[in-house]
Each structure stands twice: as structure tokens, then as C-alpha cells.
Task: inverse folding
């Protein structure tokens, strides 16, 4: 897994905030499809990546979602937030 993707995963798990696939992909300079492929298997620590239209991780069962996924309504929707906070 590329280093910058790991930085984003670690960051969103630390701040416990959902982030759209589009925002993360744009911050990393890749397509949302490439991001999903590089994230690999569904698991709680990557369930923070969500669809911009639904705010939900795509095709996740309740067991695959992080237990604190809905602790806040806030969702990172802008790549600039990740770029600024992670110095990407």
C-alpha cells in the first residue's frame, strides 16, 4: 500500500471522521476507483471512506464498519482538508 494512502487511513482513524472517496482520491492524485482498489478488503479501519451521495461506506456489512463510524455527522468532502492537515 502506498505511503500516502497509509497516512490518510491513519489520519481518518485518528480523527474518527468519515471522508469521501472523492476527497481522498483527489488529495492523493488518483481516481476514486484506484483508491478503492488500493484499499483492498473491507475492514473497519477503512470503512471511514464513504460515498459522497450516501455518506456510507460502499457494500459494507455492519460487522465490517468501524464501531464509531457514526459518532459525528461531519464528513470530510474536500481534498484540501486532507492536503492541509497531512501536508500532502
Result:
Amino acid at each position: 500500500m502506498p505511503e500516502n494512502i497509509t497516512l490518510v487511513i491513519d489520519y481518518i482513524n485518528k480523527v474518527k471522521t468519515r471522508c469521501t472517496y472523492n476527497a481522498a482520491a483527489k488529495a492523493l492524485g488518483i481516481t476514486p476507483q484506484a483508491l478503492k482498489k488500493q484499499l483492498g478488503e473491507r475492514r473497519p479501519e477503512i470503512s471511514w471512506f464513504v460515498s459522497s451521495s450516501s455518506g456510507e461506506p460502499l457494500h459494507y456489512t455492519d460487522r465490517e464498519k468501524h464501531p464509531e463510524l457514526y459518532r459525528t455527522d461531519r464528513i470530510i468532502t474536500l481534498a484540501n482538508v486532507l492536503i492541509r492537515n497531512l501536508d500532502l
Notes: The longest strand covers residues 18-20. Helices lie at 3-15, 21-28, 32-39, 79-86. The two ends are 16 Å apart (CA to CA).
